[in-house]
Amino acid sequence: MARTQLESCRTASAxxxxxxxxxxxxxxxxxxxxAACGDSTDPVNAPNAAPTTTxxxxxxxxxxxxxxxxTVPEATEGSxxxxxxxxxxxxxxxxxxxxxxxxxxEPADDGDEEPQFExxxxxxxxxxxxxxxxxxxxxxxxxxxxxxxxxxxFAGMTVFxxxxxxxxxxxxxxxxxxxxxxLVVEFNGDDVGEVADKKASLDLWMTEAYDLFYNSGCNELxxxxxxxxxxxxxxxxxxxxxxxxxxxxxxxxxxxxxxxxDWASKDTLDFEEVWDVQIINVRWKRELxxxxxx
Length: 294
What we know:
Elements: H1 2-39, E1 69-71, E2 86-88, H2 139-153, E3 172-175, E4 181-188, H3 195-214, E5 221-234, E6 242-254, H4 255-258, E7 276-280, H5 282-288
Parallel strand pairs: 4-5
Antiparallel strand pairs: 1-2, 3-4, 5-6, 6-7
């Protein structure tokens, strides 16, 4: 009996050893599994983890100023990338500022430019053959003839840069209160050169006109008024100098004075002693006299 108990104890001891080995193996396996699970990282529980960037074989090149479109590469087998499409570049074209083109330098403006004329400053009136009054013509006929003569004498344009019709207003043949015919002519002068040149030009035109009218055979003509227009400068009490186109020189000659003139020698005469000066621009008068303008 004692031997039987001894065998039973041996058998029980061997079974316990077997179970101990099983438990030890399970413990080791469980420890390895726990260690492996502890090293894994769950993206949901790791908010601070840096996102992983997958770099493909085709590098994306940043668009330059000359690029207008970006081509998306074809999707490979098993890839979720859609088929290649051509789309407008997401990056807008850079704005290139146009280079400023410098304008050619212009000469400095020294003030109001004088009218330009190539030639002599004083241009004499053209020589014309103008018919006068017929003998025995009536008053109305003489008036009409004198107007036509004035239109012919002052026909055409002035001879400087800003050309104007020579006649400023239509000539008029009026009834003179003292009797006879009063002829009125207003014309534009040639604003060329200095004041002395402009005045000399007006003198020539007026001299030729007086000669024409008083030697026309129009015996009822008793008075002629001639007015020359030009650039007139005036200085008001307040403000800058005013420039206007106005009468700068006006003369009058009556028949009594005309009858004393030797018209064949008119080029040698001083008509300032013959005609009556009605108007002369103040600045003209001072400059011609050599006086300060201001």
